[in-house]
């Protein structure tokens, strides 16, 4: 029993050390980076800015990197990071499986957009719509 | 009679007068004959659909997170967790007993404009009749025509979870005497057509102030802090300041405000969350001119620093 308690403490400590010292600011940075990339991509998708394949692919790859970096939700949303200067909803911790599914869906949609390698506006719009729809649906459920 | 006896008589008379005046003051105030006569012409379902989206009915009365056609299935069930208890949105589908399928247009108008149920009881202001009171009766007639074409849902929504004393609905009659006011919130000396339309949408059907304006300890809106942002009245967190004051959206252009209402994206391409996501799905159904009108109104109202 004592060993079990010791072992679980060790596992928790190991988990903590492999995560970030300040997960709240790390996840905010990740989200703000996504916003900056959306600022590049959305006006192109809406036809307000000219389509440029290299610009679009660069932004999609970075967006995908942000998405993949968030897949392990215990790193950016570990237990104990519910409180503080955060707009993460308590539902992230009370509905862990649903949140994991939402994070996985975004990562799979961004990966699909990169794999599609869109070379013109209609091809880009076809993959960008599903990617962008994740923002609102995930924020509706999991951000205050 | 002894002095004590006289005092007792006076006490009983005063208590009786108190009960009588409470009963009189808290009585439901239904629409009068002249107001009801404006419903007689009947409604137009196509116009009523626009009223339905503007009034955000689906946000509480459809299933949580509903998208697309599911927003027209109005079985209720959304839970609003507040300081007064948990309100559960009722079934307003066309089911004759579980929903409002048996309601006349006058029943709907008394509910939305006066907060009075067909049985004469008061509704809780979690149902935002404090804003809907500013709607035109003709819009309610159109909405009624639209609602009658929607599906029936046979499941009853669960009851509210409200403790004493707030479970005594008669007392809401007094609350309404203080807080139910159909006059405009902002008095414009002179406003453009867009601002006038925006005022109708924001202060009336859209009921934006119900979340974006702080409330006093009795749950009434603090109109001096109109749209200045607030601690969330339901759920957790804060609701943003949407005036041009400190902490607000003064640096947003009118186009950026209108764009958020259609896409959900802020000028920084953050995406709105929580209950605003559903509001955006409603606003996106309106003509662009309505979203532009809301933006014009928000640009015209007094700037306030954060209300929370």
Provide structural commentary.
The complex is a heterodimer of chains A (144) and B (308). Chain A has 7 helices and no strands. Chain A is mainly α. Chain A has a single domain (21-142), classed as Cytochrome c/b562 (Four Helix Bundle (Hemerythrin (Met), subunit A)), CATH 1.20.120. Chain A is elongated and about 45 Å long. With 308 residues, chain B is mostly helical. Chain B is built from 13 helices and 4 strands. Chain B has helices at residues 3-25, 33-37, 45-55, 57-61, 105-114, 129-132, 137-147, 172-179, 193-205, 209-212, 254-263, 276-283, 288-300, and strands spanning 79-82, 85-88, 230-231, 238-239. A two-stranded antiparallel ribbon of chain B has the order 1-2. In chain B, a hairpin with a 6-residue loop joins strand 3 (230-231) and strand 4 (238-239). Classes of the chains: A mainly alpha (144), B mainly alpha (308). Chains A and B meet through helix 2 and helix 7 of A and helix 12 of B.
């Amino acid at each position: 029993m004592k060993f079990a308690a010791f072992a679980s403490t060790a596992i928790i400590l190991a988990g903590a050390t492999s995560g970030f010292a300040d997960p709240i600011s790390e996840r905010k940075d990740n989200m703000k980076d996504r916003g900056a990339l959306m600022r590049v991509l959305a006006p192109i998708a809406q036809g307000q800015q000219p389509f440029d394949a290299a610009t679009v692919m660069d932004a999609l790859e970075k967006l995908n990197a942000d998405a993949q970096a968030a897949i392990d939700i215990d790193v950016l949303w570990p237990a104990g990071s519910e409180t503080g200067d955060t707009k993460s909803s308590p539902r992230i911790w009370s509905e862990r499986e649903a949140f994991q599914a939402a994070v996985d869906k975004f990562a799979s949609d961004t990966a699909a957009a990169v794999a599609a390698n869109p070379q013109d506006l209609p091809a880009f719009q076809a993959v960008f719509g599903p990617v962008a729809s994740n923002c609102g649906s995930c924020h509706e459920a999991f951000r205050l | 009679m002894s002095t004590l006896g006289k005092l007792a008589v006076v006490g009983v008379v005063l208590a009786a007068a108190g009960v009588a005046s409470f009963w009189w003051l808290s009585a439901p105030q239904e629409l009068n004959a002249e107001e009801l006569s404006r419903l007689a012409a009947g409604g137009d379902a196509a116009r009523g659909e626009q009223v339905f989206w503007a009034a955000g009915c689906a946000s509480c009365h459809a299933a949580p997170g509903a998208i697309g056609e599911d927003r027209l299935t109005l079985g209720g069930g959304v839970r609003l967790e507040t300081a007064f208890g948990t309100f559960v949105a009722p079934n307003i589908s066309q089911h004759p007993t579980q929903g409002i399928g048996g309601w006349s247009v006058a029943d709907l108008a008394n509910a939305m404009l006066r907060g009075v149920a067909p049985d004469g009881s008061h509704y809780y202001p979690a149902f935002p009749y404090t804003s809907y009171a500013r709607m035109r009766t003709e819009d309610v007639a159109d909405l009624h025509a639209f609602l009658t074409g929607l599906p029936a849902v046979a499941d009853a929504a669960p009851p509210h979870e409200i403790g004493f004393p707030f479970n005594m609905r008669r007392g809401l009659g007094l609350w309404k005497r203080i807080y139910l006011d159909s006059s405009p919130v902002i008095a414009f000396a002179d406003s453009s057509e867009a601002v006038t339309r925006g005022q109708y949408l924001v202060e009336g059907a859209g009921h934006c102030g119900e979340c974006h304006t702080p409330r006093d300890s009795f749950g009434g809106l603090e109109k001096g802090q109109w749209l200045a942002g607030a601690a969330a009245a339901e759920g957790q967190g804060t609701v943003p300041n949407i005036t041009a004051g400190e902490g607000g959206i003064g640096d947003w252009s009118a186009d950026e405000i209108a764009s958020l209402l259609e896409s959900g994206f802020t000028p920084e391409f953050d995406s709105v969350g929580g209950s605003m996501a559903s509001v955006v799905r409603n606003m996106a159904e309106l003509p662009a001119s309505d979203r532009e009108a809301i933006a014009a109104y928000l640009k015209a109202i007094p700037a306030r620093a954060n209300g929370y």
